[in-house]
């Protein structure tokens, strides 16, 4: 099993909080500067950008809390149920759409084939995918020769189904994620090949998925590179 | 008109800086990544460069090394506008200020648009006086 941020010393868990706090500076700066710009120009405030930025930040905070709770195995939260992967991807896309629009990233939902339900923690799975999505949406325009398209997709793999977000950038590699996990808590920008921020969204997703006994993985699908959740198939559910 | 090259990875923040700088009468070229900023500098011949140190793939320091390696860009004033607090940069301060000839180091969360505009104004005035 890969090293996770919820493993090990409590100080390492604290790094997730520090990463989230560091990440919060960006949306807060954006909101402050939107307001200041409106003040300087004596014009109207860009309210939509403020709503979208604040909503995305609040969702990151909720996801962080969920990640901590799942890592603590709080029984009432850790209820797995049959979950439709397509439905989770659809809802994730719906949640990501406003922020993707702000960053000029085209969001596509592509579900080829039929995937039976998987046993998962639905809220956790969606929170993880949304957190990943925010991180990628924010990072894509900052890459060299950016391809501003993100695809929500699922495919079968040896271990079950991978549900994730895919793009045409080649920087999303297993090595980049491994290095990020190693540098996590030690470097200001642990995912330097993927994100210019602390990458909190990716580490929060990692924490949630670990809490759900799932795994964040780098995945390749239809010549695209992505990050996704590995969801084991339950043979009994395949009859549903 | 003073031409500014702004290297800022966050698209929303970059747009806000762009609007503020344009409103103040500057001609601004925005880049989100280091390599595209080098290409852009070649085209626009900036009078001032504003750089974030935390970028994707290449750091702002790498950009500065490459930028300063060209004879034409040795004297272009550079402002660092970054999320990295200056106290984390104590050991590199001499490198930035002397070797890279960085004029100003601004910590982004504490730098309002007004403060940024004022700093640019002071820098351009000093350059004109010199």
List keywords for this structure.
A: 240 residues, alpha+beta, two-stranded antiparallel ribbon, 6 helices, 48% helix, B: 130 residues, alpha/beta, Rossmann fold
General description of the model:
The complex is a heterodimer of chains A (240) and B (130). By secondary structure, chain A is an alpha+beta fold. Chain A has helices at residues 10-41, 47-71, 85-102, 122-139, 174-183, 200-211, and strands spanning 81-83, 106-110, 118-120, 149-157, 160-167, 215-221, 224-231. Chain A has a 5-stranded mixed sheet with strand order 2-4-5-7-6. A two-stranded antiparallel sheet of chain A has the order 1-3. In chain A, a hairpin with a 2-residue loop joins strand 6 (215-221) and strand 7. The radius of gyration of chain A is 18 Å and the shape is globular. In chain A, 48% of the residues are buried.
TL;DR?
The complex is a heterodimer of chains A (240) and B (130). Helix content of chain A is 48%, strand content 18%.
**Which class of secondary structure composition applies to the elements of chain B?**
alpha/beta
The strands making up the biggest β-sheet of chain B line up spatially as 2-1-3-4-5
User: CATH superfamily of chain B, please?
Assistant: Response regulator
Helix residue percentage of chain A: 40-55%
Estimate what percentage of residues of chain B fall within beta strands. 15-25%
- Tell me which oligomeric state these chains represent: heterodimer
The number of helical segments of chain B is: 5
Task: Please tell me the total number of domains of chain B.
Answer: 1
Task: Give the helices and strands, then pairings.
The complex is a heterodimer of chains A (about 240) and B (about 130).
Chain A: H1 10-41, H2 47-71, E1 81-83, H3 85-102, E2 106-110, E3 118-120, H4 122-139, E4 149-157, E5 160-167, H5 174-183, H6 200-211, E6 215-221, E7 224-231
Parallel strand pairs in A: 2-4
Antiparallel strand pairs in A: 1-3, 4-5, 5-7, 6-7
Helix pairs in contact in A: 1-2, 1-6, 2-3, 2-4, 2-6, 3-4, 4-6
Chain B: E1 3-7, H1 11-23, E2 27-31, H2 34-44, E3 48-51, H3 60-68, E4 78-82, H4 93-99, E5 102-107, H5 113-129
Parallel strand pairs in B: 1-2, 1-3, 3-4, 4-5
Helix pairs in contact in B: 2-3
